[in-house]
UniProtKB/TrEMBL annotation:
Belongs to the TSR2 family. InterPro entries: Pre-rRNA_process_TSR2 (IPR019398). Residues 131-196 are annotated as: Disordered. Signal peptide: none annotated. This is Pre-rRNA-processing protein TSR2 homolog. GO terms for biological process: rRNA processing. Keywords: rRNA processing. The keyword Iron-sulfur does not apply. It holds the Pfam family WGG. It comes from Drosophila guanche. Residues 139-163 have a biased composition (Acidic residues).
Length: 196
C-alpha cells in the first residue's frame, strides 16, 4: 500500500512540475497567441501538456531523443510550428531529470530549481482566457474583409478538411471552365489552387 501511495504522490507532484514547465514555455504560448492552433489553440496546448505528462508517467524508460521527437511532432502537427531555439531539448532534458528526481523524492531540490523560473501567470488552464491574433500569411491588409469589416474568408473547422484550397473567390465562369477540364488563366490578382 505504501508503494501505491508513493506512486500517487509522485504523479501528483510530477504533474505540477510538467504544468510549471509548460506554462513557462514561450514558444508554445506564442504559437497559441498567434493563432497557429486555430481558435482552440489553448485547448490544444493543454492537451499537448496532458499527453506529455501521460507519456512520461506511462513509460518507464524514455530517452531524451524519443521525448523530443514526440513533442516536436505534436508542435508540427497541431501548431505547424518548428522550434529552432533548442527549447524542446531543454524542456525534455528537464522533464526527464525532474521525473527521476521526483521518483527519488527529491522534491525540495526540484522546488529550488523551479522557483528560479520567471514568475508568470498559469495560462494552460481552461478557466484562463488567452487572446490570439490569427496570422494570415502574407496578407495582413483588408483584402479578405467585406464592406461590414467582417472576414469573408472564415471557415468552420468541419469545412477545413474537405474544402478546396482557394486564396480568393472564384467567379462562376472560372468554375465552369475548370469543371470543363480546360485551364483558364485567372485574372490578375487571383490565384487558383487545384487539388490533385
Amino acid at each position: 500500500m505504501a508503494a501505491a501511495a508513493q506512486q500517487k504522490e509522485f504523479q501528483k507532484n510530477f504533474r505540477l512540475i510538467v504544468e510549471k514547465i509548460f506554462n513557462n514555455w514561450q514558444n508554445l504560448r506564442l504559437a497559441v497567441e498567434h493563432g497557429m492552433g486555430g481558435r482552440n489553440g489553448q485547448q490544444v496546448a493543454i492537451q499537448i501538456m496532458d499527453y506529455t505528462y501521460q507519456y512520461c508517467v506511462g513509460n518507464e524508460k524514455i530517452s531524451q531523443g524519443e521525448l523530443e521527437a514526440v513533442i516536436e511532432e505534436l508542435m508540427d502537427q497541431e501548431f505547424n510550428t518548428l522550434c529552432d531555439d533548442n527549447s524542446i531539448p531543454e524542456i525534455c532534458s528537464n522533464l526527464l531529470r525532474y521525473k527521476q528526481m521526483a521518483q527519488q523524492n527529491q522534491y525540495p531540490d526540484i522546488e529550488a530549481e523551479l522557483i528560479k523560473l520567471p514568475p508568470g501567470k498559469e495560462w494552460l488552464r481552461p478557466d484562463v482566457k488567452v487572446t490570439y491574433t490569427p496570422v494570415d500569411g502574407d496578407s495582413s491588409s483588408d483584402e479578405n474583409m467585406d464592406e461590414d469589416g467582417d472576414d469573408d474568408d472564415e471557415m468552420d473547422e468541419s469545412d477545413e478538411e474537405d474544402a478546396p484550397i482557394v486564396s480568393a473567390r472564384v467567379t462562376r465562369s472560372q468554375t465552369r471552365m475548370q469543371n470543363a477540364d480546360k485551364f483558364v488563366e485567372p485574372e490578375d490578382g487571383w490565384t487558383t489552387v487545384r487539388r490533385k
